[in-house]
Structures are given as structure tokens and as C-alpha cells.
Write a structure and sequence with these properties.
By secondary structure, the chain is an alpha/beta fold. Helix content is about 30%, strand content about 25%. A hairpin with a 7-residue loop joins β1 and β2.
């Protein structure tokens, strides 16, 4: 690598796979900041792009540097930036909003109609450096572990979902125990849920769900999860559904288990349009349903800060694998296997996991 170039993982063309290449180091504009990436984590969105599934084909315009969850250190600031300075340790909100559409102008920027997501709509963070708008940066405590700081954007999905309603002293069902589902279980526990039930098809992740605080963690392919949870709730069902998987069977099970007048927070994305019993699942049940998009700007980030600073949630518990960025193919295979929690990568090697600038 020369002084003006960097390593980056890109989606080079409209086909499966990714490629590590050498590209110019980006330069920040007047309101932008150049960040040296210290750690970056893998999200389900990255797997969609890697596999080049129908969603990725409809959204991604190669070539683009992928990745949207990261932390790092400010190394250069634009001429009118005053929010951060060189040397600051930051994470970032990956959704870059327009500030001019109706949702933005009415305080709902997370619903911006013109959102650009790094690693999807513009160059992302699976690289040695990234340029970000200064307004999208979040200052971290200097002693926060790099791997924890890199997870905050993804953690925000779990926090936004969990706090869509009040979980205190309520029975909660989490369908889908991928990393965000596992984090949602920890948040529900911290919020004082009466009981937490979890479902998945991976025994590995169900074991993790129990470790995170689930009272019951059931493999839906190995038994009658509906009957077990109904028995555990004295036939009443759950008060709150947090649907994290997008799997049609999980959606149906979740709403069958939701009590009359219950609330559902829906984060998981279905692979395509799915059949759904609207009459019995929502209308006649009087259910309240929340669609969850990203993180509320910036309310969710302040909630995250409170949970982490107060030690109510320890994100290190959900991290199971660490790789050098050069080993991204191995890291992606582990994430795809279902035999992992969160997977974190380090541009300067795994040994830098606790390093500072």
C-alpha cells in the first residue's frame, strides 16, 4: 500500500462474492471527517450483499466498499468541522439523512426518504479509512473496548426494538436469536421483563439466548414451541413480541402467541412478500404493531449510552469470533454458519483488539 492508498473490501460487480483491493484513501469535504477504522463487525446486510440475493441485486450499485458497523480514530477534519477533533475515538450512525424531507423536518430522521447507508448506497467501513459527515459521529469513552464500540450501531437496532414499548414486568417473546435478537434479550432483561422466551432453529444460538437471560429458549424444529410457551404463560400468551428473524413461520408463531391487546415490534425483514392472517393476528386481536427502522436519531444512541455506561448490558458477551480484516472470507463463513454470535474484524490485525491510537 502506498501513502495515498488503502486496503478495502468491495463488491466489484453484480455477482456473488467480495474482493479486497487497493483504492485511494478518501479525502474529507468541509463538513466531513477522515477516520482510521480500528474495528468493524459483520451484519446480516453484509451477508445479503456477499451472497448477492434479490434484495442486494435491487439495491447495490457496484463497485462499492461494503460494511457499515465500525469504530475508529479521527485523523483529519474538514475546514468547518467543530464537533470532533483529531485523535477522538468515535463510532458512527450509518444512516446519512437529507434533513429536507417531511420525516426529517418533523423530527423523525430515522425515516428519512432519502437515506444513504454506508456500505450500501455509498462507500462503507470494511477498509483502513472511511470518510463520514461530522454530524454522524458518536464520541466514545477512551477506554471502551474497540470490539464493543464497533457494535453500537447494530446494538441500536435491538435497543430501538426493545424500547418501542414498555417491557417492565411483562412477558416478552423474541423470535430469532441472531446477534440482534441476543442483544434484545439482554436489553429486555435490563428493562425488567417478567419473563423472556426465545425461539430459533439453531441450538448454538439458543444456548447463547439462555446465557443472555432467556427463561425459555426453544428450537421450533424440535418441538411444539407454541404449546410450551402457552403453558408457561398460563394460557395467556405473551405481552410483547419482538420479531427479529423475518422468517414467515416465526412471524406466524409470534402473533399466535401474542395475547389479545398485546404489542409487537417488528425488526426482521422477510425474504419476500409473505402470507399473513391479518384478521386474527392483528384486527380481531386488537394488537398494536410497530415497524422498526434503524435507530431513532439520536434518542436510541443516548439510551445505548445509558445501558452501556450503567453496565446494564455487556456487549462483549455476544462476541464469539475475531478476525483480521484480511481474513474476511473466513469471517463471513463463520457468520453464515449460524454457529456464532457477533463477528468482529480488525484492519490492523486481531492483536489490536484493545489498542488505542
Amino acid at each position: 500500500m502506498s501513502a495515498q492508498t488503502m486496503r478495502a473490501i468491495v463488491k466489484p460487480d453484480r455477482s456473488p462474492g467480495l474482493k479486497m483491493v487497493e483504492v485511494p484513501i478518501p479525502r474529507p469535504g468541509p463538513r466531513e471527517v477522515l477516520i482510521k477504522v480500528a474495528a468493524t463487525s459483520i451484519c446480516g446486510t453484509d451477508l445479503h450483499i456477499y451472497k448477492w440475493d434479490p434484495w442486494a441485486q435491487s439495491r447495490i450499485q457496484p463497485p462499492v466498499i461494503v460494511g457499515h458497523e465500525f469504530c475508529g480514530y479521527v485523523v483529519e477534519v474538514g475546514e468547518v468541522v467543530n464537533e470532533v477533533k483529531v485523535g477522538d475515538f468515535v463510532s458512527a450512525e450509518s444512516h446519512i439523512i437529507c434533513h429536507t424531507c417531511a420525516p426529517c423536518r418533523t423530527g423523525r430522521g430515522h425515516l428519512c426518504q432519502n437515506t444513504q447507508i454506508i456500505g450500501v448506497d455509498r462507500d462503507g467501513c470494511w477498509a483502513e479509512y472511511i470518510v463520514m459527515p461530522a454530524e454522524n459521529l458518536w464520541l466514545n469513552p477512551p477506554d471502551m473496548p474497540l470490539e464493543v464500540a464497533s457494535l453500537q450501531e447494530n446494538f441500536g437496532n435491538a435497543v430501538h426494538t426493545a424500547f418501542a414499548t414498555d417491557l417492565t414486568a411483562r412477558r416478552v417473546l423474541v423470535t430469532g436469536c441472531g446477534p440482534v435478537g441476543l442483544m434484545a434479550i439482554m436489553v429486555a432483561k435490563a428493562a425488567g421483563a417478567r419473563a423472556i422466551y426465545a425461539t430459533d432453529i439453531s441450538n448454538y444460538r439458543l444456548r447463547m439466548a439462555r446465557e443472555m437471560g432467556a427463561d425459555l429458549a426453544l428450537n421450533v424444529s424440535e418441538g411444539d414451541a407454541y404449546r410450551v410457551i402457552m403453558d408457561a404463560t398460563d394460557g395467556e400468551g405473551v405481552d410483547v413480541l419482538m420479531e427479529m428473524s423475518g422468517a414467515p413461520q416465526a412471524v406466524d408463531l409470534g402473533f399466535r402467541l401474542l395475547r389479545f391487546g398485546g404489542e409487537a415490534a417488528m425488526l426482521g425483514l422477510a425474504p419476500s412478500a409473505i402470507p399473513f392472517d391479518l384478521n386474527n393476528h392483528i384486527v380481531l386481536k386488537g394488537a398494536i404493531v410497530y415497524g422498526i427502522v434503524g435507530r431513532e436519531l439520536w434518542a436510541t444512541w443516548y439510551r445505548m449510552r445509558g445501558l452501556l455506561a450503567g453496565h446494564a448490558v455487556d456487549l462483549r458477551r455476544v462476541i464469539t469470533h475475531r478476525f483480521a480484516l484480511d481474513d474476511y472470507e473466513k469471517a463471513l463463513r463463520v457468520m453464515q454458519s449460524g454457529q456464532s454470535g457477533k463477528v468482529v474484524m480488525f484492519p490492523d490485525g486481531v492483536g489490536t483488539a484493545s489498542a488505542t491510537l
